[in-house]
Amino acid sequence: MEFVLLGFSDIPNLHWMLFSTFLLINFSLLEICYVTIIIPRMLMDIWTQKGNISLFACATQMCFFLMLGGTECLLLTVMAYDRYVAICKPLQYPLVMNHKVCIQLIIASWIITIPVVIGETCQIFLLPFCGTNTINHFFCDIPPILKLACGNIFVNKITVHVVAVVFITVPFLLIVVSYGKIISNILKLSSARGKAKAFSTCSSHLIVVILFFGAGTITYLQPKPHQFQRMGKLISLFYTILIPTLNPIIYTLRNKDIMVALRKLLAQLLT
After folding, report:
1. What is the CA 78 to chain-centroid distance, rounded?
2. What residue spans define the domains of the chain?
3. Which of 30-39, 154-163, 206-215 has the highest mean pLDDT?
4. Which of the four pLDDT bands, split at 50, 70 and 90, describes residue 177?
5. Which class in CATH covers the domain with range 12-270?
6. Is the pLDDT of residue 17 over 70?
7. Long-range contacts, stretch 54-57, CB < 8 angstroms, 24+ apart
């Protein structure tokens, strides 16, 4: 009737440090929808030292987490296309990426993931679970849940990999193609200042893409998900908490006003 999330109980000395850190991080995130699926529950588990979670709550957490993660993959792809049009076809940009098109792309990124994720979540939680009900993780993710399932889960593993290819590999390849054309176009510029400005426009997005897709690929496309143990937890912490925390910092560092304010603050602290 329920699972028990092991979380970080195998590292008891870190409980209070983790609780304090994650609590502070939760207040500073702009991507609150994404991390709210994970952090409040994790804070409660660390505080109470209990990880009990019903099957329905576990399925709900997994469904929303995958939905938001898939949407972020698609939105990062849309952003890469936006930069491609802006740099490679600047004269066509107002027509190609007008307000209506942007709204349609954003809505499509949200809608496409919903039926796929709901179907995958239902397929996983219709499996029989036997033996231990302890999930060696801090939230309900696919690899540790499949580890508890009984019987033949070959079809489920194939489904997970197919969905991962659709929402991780394909978007990443599209982003790579977009940036390949962007870099080729930038290198043709004669002005060094123009090259620097074009690269700075893409740098923040490219950093987020590498961090997010890299962690997602390791998690969902690894050949042996049953080996998902401590390393899996660390990778999950990376893309569920660290990356959303870094995103505002990465993007705002491109803002000149922010940089000027930071320099002034640093100068005041040093004097």
Report:
1. 15
2. 12-270
3. 154-163
4. very high
5. mainly alpha
6. no
7. 54/1, 54/2, 55/1, 55/2, 55/3, 55/125
- Count of CB atoms situated within 10 Å of the CB of 78: 19
Q: Structure tokens of 225?
A: 């998900």
The residue assigned the tokens 């027509």 is: 95
- Those residues whose C-beta lies under 8 Å from the C-beta of residue 181, and which sit 6 or more positions away, are 84, 88
- How would you write the chain as a 3-class SS string? CEEEECCCCCCHHHHHHHHHHHHHHHCCCCCHHHHHCCHHHHHHHHHHCCCEEEHHHHHHHHHHHHHHHHHHHHHHHHHHHHHHHHHHCCCCHHHHCCHHHHHHHHHHHHHHHHHHHHHHHHHHHCCCECCCCEECCCCCCHHHHHCCECCCCHHHHHHHHHHHHHHHHHHHHHHHHHHHHHHHHHHCCCCHHHHHHHHHHHHHHHHHHHHHHHHHHHHHCCCCHHHCCHHHHHHHHHHHHHHHHHHHHHHHCCCHHHHHHHHHHHHHHHC
Sign, CA dihedral 232-237-240-242, equals: negative
Packing angle between helix 99-125 and helix 55-88, nearest 10 degrees?
A: 150
Amino acid at 219: T
Locus of tokens 């969902």 = 220
Which residues, listed in sequence order, are joined to residue 129 by a DSSP beta bridge? 149
pLDDT > 80? residue 26? no
Question: Which segment of 159-163, 223-227, 266-270 scores lowest on mean pLDDT?
Answer: 223-227
Q: What is the Cα Rg of the chain in Å?
A: 21
Inter-CA distances, 237 with 93, 127, 139, 234, 247, Å: 37, 27, 10, 5, 15
